[in-house]
Amino acid sequence: MNGLRGMRGWQWIFLLEGLFTVCFGLFSFLVLPNGPEKVITFRPEHTERCIARLQQDGNKFETETKVSFKEVISVLKDLHVWIACLILFCNGACLFGLAYFSPSIVQALGYSSTKTQLMTVPPYACGFVVTMITAYFSDRYQQRGIGAFVTSGIALIGAALAINGRSIGVRYAALVLLLTGVYACAPCLISWVPNNTAGHVRRATAVAMAFIATNCGGIMSTWIYPEKSAPYYQLGSRFNLSLTVIAMALVVAQVGLLRMLNRRKKSDPVRLLRGVEDLPYEEQLDKLGDRHPRYKYTY
Question: Taking the alpha carbons of 143, 147, 150, 152 in that order, is the dihedral positive or negative?
């Protein structure tokens, strides 16, 4: 299609893929249900079970949820939410940078354009396998921090190899490790946010902040692989190394903070329930969300 209607091939790719995305988004807006009771494939018992799970997860289910500005502000005061956003910023910067520029990194190894596309597959295949393994153990043992730290460690090794690596084999291995670690870490981080926020408005606000932070990192990543730094891309390698170290330090800090908050809930529940102690449990949880003494933070 290159040259058709005066447009270049890459312009047609952007147009067609973008058009499909927009149309699918509009279609999804029309067909996605607003709640469990709107799912046409659910039987009554399925709907009841789904609502019960939502309530057990710390969310009071309502078909029409009113957004409370006070609850939004309360999330902005939570240190653990901001730490999570900083970690996701670091991860997002590395992740988007690799997503955008991994073909350029592989091509700098000396491969043809066709082989470059093929050689970008193994790193993502490894990332997929490690992501599935990490997700399984992270969910089974409810340990997001350990999963995030270990996978970040894999990325750290890859970034360190990329800085000093000069041979094709070392540079390619560095890319595999870096991409595997960064991509496998992302699910641990993004699931960590809703795990530690309860109440519909609080959770929605925290998740929105997390995605904003991740995409802000993606904006920064567009400048870390300048063409003049080819073929070794030292700037990008140092950037990835620095942000990975920062992310790992923040993960350790986050685990420590969440453990401290859990201990505080256990040692002084009366103080946390002050003002709502006479209300039923469901109303207490609705007002306090994840700050309720019975709500245990996942670390």
Answer: negative
